[in-house]
TrEMBL record:
<keyword id="KW-0808">Transferase</keyword>
<comment type="similarity">
    <text>Belongs to the glutamine synthetase family.</text>
</comment>
<dbReference type="InterPro" id="IPR036651">
    <property type="entry name" value="Gln_synt_N_sf"/>
</dbReference>
<dbReference type="InterPro" id="IPR014746">
    <property type="entry name" value="Gln_synth/guanido_kin_cat_dom"/>
</dbReference>
<dbReference type="Pfam" id="PF00120">
    <property type="entry name" value="Gln-synt_C"/>
</dbReference>
<protein>
    <recommendedName>
        <fullName>Glutamine synthetase</fullName>
    </recommendedName>
</protein>
<dbReference type="GO" id="GO:0004356">
    <property type="term" value="F:glutamine synthetase activity"/>
</dbReference>
<dbReference type="GO" id="GO:0016301">
    <property type="term" value="F:kinase activity"/>
</dbReference>
<dbReference type="GO" id="GO:0006542">
    <property type="term" value="P:glutamine biosynthetic process"/>
</dbReference>
<keyword id="KW-0418">Kinase</keyword>
<keyword id="KW-0436">Ligase</keyword>
<dbReference type="InterPro" id="IPR008146">
    <property type="entry name" value="Gln_synth_cat_dom"/>
</dbReference>
<feature type="domain" description="GS catalytic">
    <location>
        <begin position="97"/>
        <end position="424"/>
    </location>
</feature>
Length: 424
């Protein structure tokens, strides 16, 4: 069997499952799997939003570069493949997040001979469901610290972690390294860098395997940015721009100047839930609170590793990464097209510890949004970024996010927390 998988605007993985015999028949006859266009406008629990269209159909276009065997414990002998959305004429659908990102990547390669590669860190918190309404989850380890291997971790976490890593290896999703992360029950799996689209495809498949193996142990693996008190999880993306060495430094500076200019809007995609902003804090190594960059500075949302290699820290696992990275590439392309200068200086201090004059000298005049609504407002006003990503898609996204957030606000706090933990 083959899982035809796609990621919707809200970051929900959806799929159609076909026997390989029937998929091959569709390919040979030129037929496609169609789905109602309305489905792209529903929330995680199929709540209909005003972004739903009552007419139209889109078609799943398997991207066979992402075809991988599923792990041996899957319920079916199967493989998975990520899909883009195509229209009735056989062209990429203009509201497809994956196609939008692919278009920008192709433009960057065709015009500037730059190939973007990504390496992701998958930060996961492993939780047991307690059945207690007041305290619905507890981490599987408590005697837990960064890169530690306590008896608690060795006996209660390592059997699960080892099974996950082995399953990923069998699915051609090798982990570069893994270790305990700060926060009870939390582990970090570093994935190998790949060309951008392939990296995000692999990220989605990796997360699915982690979820599934954990469930076989009765454990909830969550990417929630604040799953339990004292824990904060991100989805840091390492972005490298690869091209002609002689011009790469200047182009990389132009690129990240564009990213910094649009960072508040980008947060609407990269930190798309209310709890995402619990990570926007001082002295937590989560990226800080100021729009800034710094070489090896983990208190900045953009950490420069080397000239063409940067890390985006203002992102978490609730994001649709095609949209989040699509926004980054679109902003960076604008920076290159307009030859924007990197006016922000390299920050080598904690921005919040600097004086107002020192921050101003470094070009730090804006803070990161403090809520998803602030991010959405920034995106709503950002006509340049909308134009590059696709105004219709961005408009639908904003509508859906606001209706999703209204739904969550109307839930009791604990219920809303469980709702998100069980979905991300």
């Amino acid at each position: 069997y083959v899982y035809l998988m796609w990621l919707d605007y809200m970051g929900t993985m959806r799929c159609r499952i076909l026997h390989v015999r029937d998929l091959l028949h569709l390919i040979k006859t030129g037929k496609r799997v169609g789905i109602a266009q309305a489905i792209i406008g529903v929330l995680q629990d199929d709540t209909i939003t005003s972004a739903c269209s009552s007419v139209g159909q889109i078609f799943l276009h398997p991207e066979f570069t992402s075809l991988r065997a599923c792990h041996p414990k899957d319920r079916l002998p199967s493989a998975s493949v990520l899909c883009s959305w195509y229209d009735a004429l056989g062209d990429p659908f203009d509201r497809c997040p994956r196609s939008m990102l692919g278009k920008s990547l192709n433009e960057m390669e065709d015009i500037y001979s730059i190939i973007a590669c990504l390496g992701f860190e998958v930060e996961v918190t492993f939780l047991r469901r307690t059945g207690d309404e007041d305290n619905p989850f507890e981490p599987i380890t408590k005697n837990h610290a960064w890169c530690a291997m306590s008896g608690d971790q060795w006996s209660n976490a390592m059997p699960l972690v080892a099974e996950i890593v082995s399953a990923l290896e069998l699915s051609a999703l090798p982990v570069l390294e893994f270790h305990a992360a700060p926060g009870p029950g939390k582990y970090d799996f570093a994935l190998r860098p790949k060309p951008a689209l392939q990296a995000i495809d692999a990220l989605i498949q990796t997360r699915q395997i982690i979820y599934q193996i954990a469930e076989l142990h009765g454990i909830r693996a969550t990417l929630h940015p604040a799953p339990v008190p004292g824990a904060a999880s991100g989805a840091h993306a390492h972005i490298s721009l690869n091209g002609e060495e002689s011009s790469m430094q200047m182009l990389a500076d132009n690129f990240f100047a564009g990213v910094i200019e649009h960072l508040e809007s980008i947060c609407a995609f990269s930190m798309p839930q209310a709890p995402s902003y619990d990570r926007v804090a001082e002295d937590r190594w989560t990226g800080g609170v100021w729009v800034a960059w710094g070489t090896q500075n983990r208190e900045c949302p953009l950490r420069k590793v080397k000239s063409n290699h940067w890390e985006m820290r203002c992102a978490d696992g609730t994001a649709n990464m095609y949209l989040a990275i699509g926004a980054v590439i679109a902003a960076g392309l604008e920076g290159i097209d307009l030859e924007k200068s990197l006016t922000h200086k390299d920050c080598q201090e904690k921005p919040h510890k600097m004086t107002a004059e020192e921050r101003l000298e470094h070009g730090m005049t804006k803070m990161l949004p403090k809520s998803i609504e602030q991010s959405l407002q920034a995106l709503e006003k950002d006509e340049q970024l909308q134009a590059r990503m696709g105004p219709a898609m961005v408009k639908d996204y904003i509508v859906m996010k606001r209706q999703e957030q209204e739904k969550l606000k109307n839930m009791p706090k604990n219920e809303a927390h469980v709702w998100l933990v069980e979905r991300y």
